[in-house]
Write a structure and sequence with these properties.
Layout lengths: L6 H11 L25 H10 L2 H5 L18 H18 L4 H10 L8 H11 L8 H12 L13 H8 L20 H25 L4 H4 L3 H13 L5 H31 L4 H5 L10 H19 L2 H23 L6 H4 L2 H4 L1 H11 L2 H11 L7
Bound molecules: magnesium ion (MG).
């Protein structure tokens, strides 16, 4: 065996090792601007590396998942959420003989376009841009990787493959976009489906953990949720003397394991039954083949409903969201009223992207702490955050 594994050898191994309906890097539709392939990294490994080196990836560290960054050092932010999701996605992709690198690239990129302050930020931008092209975080992620990252001399953006961009878009492209958008079948690739489901596994579980840590939700309330009750009951029976914190950690580990186990086993059964011969047959399926058993799907829905009612709509979270919405609405008003307040690099894009979209890109790209610092500087207060 030779010491160095070349890209061609890696691509050959993918053909042998991956399922027939997995996306192979050698079969990629390529990039909008053609590039010479790398000597030992596959096309999707290169996408993944470009995403990790992007400025927008580093900004995820100071973007809210549920809790604003200064509320505590142990809560998830979008960066740690992304890393937890990526780790789960690799496990699922590997177990199903799918292309782990593609699933990883998609999930590492999936939240790049999230504005500051989580869904509150997305809501306020969608409102401000109503009638002006709207706002959607998946579309914003595509704008970042296609247009807004500046790292290469020959093109704007990261020039990712069509397959990674398709996974990022999730629901197809309903908007005008200056670059060719990836073609879409009835279903996205399985790797894109994996990224989507593993995002959900990651946030559901870590939001439970953060919700308990913050005491916005309690163990007593969670006893009404069968999925939690079973997992926690099992842990308490197996390790009655463990501390409460360890029991919570073990319950969440058990829940992730249960979800991942059911997902890969149910999906494997559906794949065996449908037996798609290749990627094209997989894309033509009338419904998604990646998913849980009906029983677990229902239990997960109950758990998510619980979080929706008790955590995402907790008075503390709602009050924080309202303050966050005020921060972004105030900044929008200042920048739109007096473009001289914007940095020159934003004004420089008024011509090509239009002034509204250039300001939207700037505000959406902000971290929570930068938006708060701008609010203090330009409006004179911290909006109670
Ligand atoms: Mg996410």
């Amino acid at each position: 065996m030779k010491a160095l594994r070349t890209r061609e050898e890696w691509e050959r191994e993918e053909r042998e090792r991956l399922a027939p309906y997995a996306v192979r890097s050698a079969d990629s539709l390529g990039r909008v601007v053609p590039e010479v392939e790398h000597p030992y990294r596959s096309a999707f490994q290169r996408d993944r590396d470009r995403i990790v080196h992007a400025r927008a990836f580093r900004r995820l560290e100071y973007k809210t998942q549920v809790f604003v960054h200064h509320e505590g050092d142990h809560y998830r932010n979008r960066l740690t959420h992304t890393l937890e999701g990526a780790q789960i996605a690799r496990t699922v992709a590997r177990a199903l003989r799918l292309n782990e690198d593609l699933a990883e690239a998609v999930i590492l990129a999936h939240d790049l376009g999230h504005p500051p302050f989580g869904h509150a930020g997305e809501r306020v931008l969608a409102e401000l841009l109503r009638g002006d092209g709207g706002f959607d975080h998946n579309r914003q992620t595509l704008r970042i990787v296609d247009l807004l990252e500046e790292r290469y001399p020959g093109f704007r953006g990261l020039n990712l493959t069509f397959e990674t961009r398709e996974g990022i878009l999730k629901h197809g492209c309903r908007w005008e976009h200056p670059l060719p958008v990836p073609p879409r079948g009835a279903q996205p690739s399985l790797e894109a489906q994996v990224a989507d489901r593993c995002d959900e596994i990651a946030y559901t579980n870590h939001d439970l953990d953060d919700g308990l840590r913050s005491e916005l939700i309690g163990l007593g309330q969670l006893a009404e949720v069968p999925l939690w009750r079973d997992a926690h009951g099992d842990v308490c029976a197996r390790m009655p003397d463990a501390g409460a914190g360890v029991k919570v950690a073990q319950t969440i580990a058990g829940l992730i394991n249960r979800l991942v186990g059911d997902l890969v086993e149910s999906t494997a059964a559906r794949l065996t039954a449908a037996a798609p011969a290749d990627v094209a047959a997989l894309r033509a399926q009338p419904q998604r083949l990646l998913g849980y058993s009906p029983g677990l799907e229902k239990s997960l829905r109950e758990l998510k409903d619980f979080l929706y009612r008790n955590l995402y709509h907790h008075p503390h979270v709602i009050a924080t969201n309202q303050r966050a919405e005020r921060v972004l609405a105030d900044l929008w008003k200042v920048y739109r009223g007096d473009p001289e307040r914007l940095p020159p690099h934003v004004r420089a894009r008024f011509g090509e992207d239009g002034d509204t979209r250039a300001v939207a890109d700037y505000v959406a790209g902000m971290t929570d702490r930068f938006a708060l610092a701008e609010h203090r500087r330009l409006v004179g207060d911290d909006a109670g955050l």
